Amino acid sequence: xxxxxxxxxxxxxxxxxxxxxxxxxxxxxxxxxxxxxxxxxxxxxxxxxxxxxxxxxxxxxxxxxxxxxxxxxxxxxxxxxxxxxxxxxxxxxxxxxxxxxxxxxxxxxxxxxxxxxxxxxxxxxxxxxxxxxxxxxxxxxxxxxxxxxxxxxxxxxxxxxxxxxxxxxxxxxxxxxxxxxxxxxxxxxxxxxxxxxxxxxxxxxxxxxxxxxxxxxxxxxxxxxxxxxxxxxxxxxxxxxxxxxxxxxx
Length: 250
Ligand code: 13P
Fold this sequence. Notes:
The protein is of the alpha/beta class. It has a single domain (8-73, 82-248), classed as Aldolase class I (TIM Barrel), CATH 3.20.20.70. The chain has helices spanning 22-32, 47-57, 83-89, 99-105, 109-121, 134-138, 142-153, 181-205, 216-223, 240-248, and strands at 8-12, 40-44, 63-66, 93-96, 125-130, 163-167, 207-211, 230-233. An 8-stranded parallel β-barrel has the order 1-2-3-4-5-6-7-8, surrounded by 7 helices. It is globular, with a radius of gyration of 17 Å. The site of 1,3-dihydroxyacetonephosphate has 14 residues, from strand 8. 1,3-dihydroxyacetonephosphate binds next to strand 8.
């Protein structure tokens, strides 16, 4: 990690984890102490576990976040959960616009922007995800897609405190494939440029995470790329030993 921005290693548990997963989370808390000097650690379990994890994490070195929220604070939206509800449970951040939500739930950039604003309304940090599909990459459209998604999903009130951007190439998620470090560098440099142009000094400090098949064996190499300020980790974040090893790679 060469940049001055403090790294953030985030685990996205997706739709995995039961109450019995507390032991794994406790192992993360137990091992996080020495790593906290180098990086911030955040785990986003399914909504069912946010409260229990946040209660367990109180005073510890791993923060707890959520994976999605509704744009509204409350109301007649059966089955949905608001940013305020997650804040109430002790969450500090919420992922919005993950490609799985874009694909499974048809989420648009405009909706993701509303969700990011909802996260801020609750006083939390929004982790806004962007990234191209395989077809888009093959067609040479990676930077165009990232540009469009950033433009549409980010709000004017973005600051380094309330926003984290996660670049996750869709084709790298859960596949074991990763872009070359040169490709990661190109996209992250591009994202940094978009952020600084729009948000000036704040944009220079917004953390840009890389996500997609990050594991202990490739984390250090990816984290060393310029403008990579941490990772958004899926599968490997389910195991404390892997998650902590990834954080150690910062
Ligand atoms: P994997 O680390 O399992 O590829 O998932 C990445 C991801 O989608 C994190 O949000």
